[in-house]
Design a protein that fits this description.
This protein is of the alpha/beta class. The chain is built from 18 helices and 17 strands. Helix 1 packs antiparallel against helix 2, helix 11 packs parallel to helix 12 and helix 13 crosses helix 18. The chain is globular and about 85 Å long.
Amino acid sequence: MRKRRVEFLIAFILFISLSLLLFSNLSLAVKAWVSLLYISTIMVSIYSLMLENRSPQHTLLWIYVLLFFPIIGYLFYLFSGQLYLKGYLFRSKRKKDREEWKKVLQQDTSPDLAFLQDYQHSFAKFANHTSPTPISTASRSFILKNGDETFPEIMKKLKEAEKFIHIEYYIFRSDRLGNEIIRILIDKAKKGVEVLFIFDAVGSRKIRPEVIKEMEKAGIRVKAFSPLKYGFFNQKVNFRNHRKIIVIDGKIGFVGGLNVGVEYLGENKKVGFWRDTHMLLKGEAVFFLHMVFLLDWEYISGEKILQRYSTFKTIIDDGILDGAVQVVASGPDTQAGLMSDFYFSIISSATKSIWIASPYFVPDESIRTALRVAAAKGIEVRIMVPEINDGFLTQYASRSYFPELLRYGVEIYSYKKGFLHQKVIIIDGNLASLGTANMDMRSFHLNFEVNVFLYGSSSIRDLVTHYEQDMKDSEIINPVQYYKRGFLERSKESFARLFSGVL
């Protein structure tokens, strides 16, 4: 709170001093003192920026912004540019989460991963060392393609709930689809099933207050994640909960790319067909997905409920080995750049192929390097992005990275059937990632995310099949033709790329 007040005091001083210099009739002596105050404030801002230890190019960019656009630039820096905050906003949550994960892991033993191939084992070693969540061989994963498979399955499982339903979404709309799910939740709550409901205060800002009141009246406990108590004069506006989690009775878990709204069924005419991927989990992995939800609930509610659900842990032990599953949460409540490290590591482990599908492809330098090196070694690298994005900056910033990747032989596919929203990585056809994290700086540094990593699971075959089907609805970008694109297109890309650090 004190840091935020200081930052806005600086913005106020800049505004007043610049106004006095430009629009007042003060004496030259007074204006000289005001100029000194203005210059000193700018220098303090630049010094504070330097202490964040960003990359040199990012530091220089923001210095230029502060010098040439002092007031607007400073405000934009506060709300959009602080990717490298040291985590003071969520320090208490991060510390508490680490302690809770340690308590849980004391009771667990490492699974036998001898069945993994060398490249999988290398990534598993990194994953076990980096994430608090263990790899599980006592779980099952099932791929759900698009909303027409996902939402009927979600509603079916919700109706079967007996003890509790815990649900967390970035976007949850109170439209036809949302209301249908809410009606099920209300019915279950009235029958004694515990329902805890988290929605992101920004992503779900259009959910109607009367709907929330109706849910609460029925006994559903509803919490907004990071509500904007101070409006947009609150730095937490930048740190959003992008997770999509449902846990039912500790036995069933849902996670993936689909939020709740009719557009995710392709019913929004402006958006059109919506291509996405979700996942149903069973077994031990559900417990770890549940942990992510419970830690979020404790943070926003102040309650201590984690131990109450410690016994809701199911193990699939049917004698059939179907690979391994690992739930990985990332965000300001974990170590900085955790998901970026996971993406870099899984890409670097490839020996034959790397297939990526992402709606927002704004990779950092390490991931671009990993992709270029892989392609240079003869590994098949395919990247699939939507033909038309839902934002000017994200669309053209993504395209600005195409030339350097195309030069190394990376294949880039433009999905034309509709809007591609799935976040999938498939390595060598037998190692994969699916979840909520996009391949951009916002998912890497600002958002709370959760992904599932699959090792040799049979569900990876479904991801491969679906990816191959999506390629039929895509057009490969011809490098020669792309290099000939017009000056206007290049200008748009160059302009959008300036903002890639905050997309």
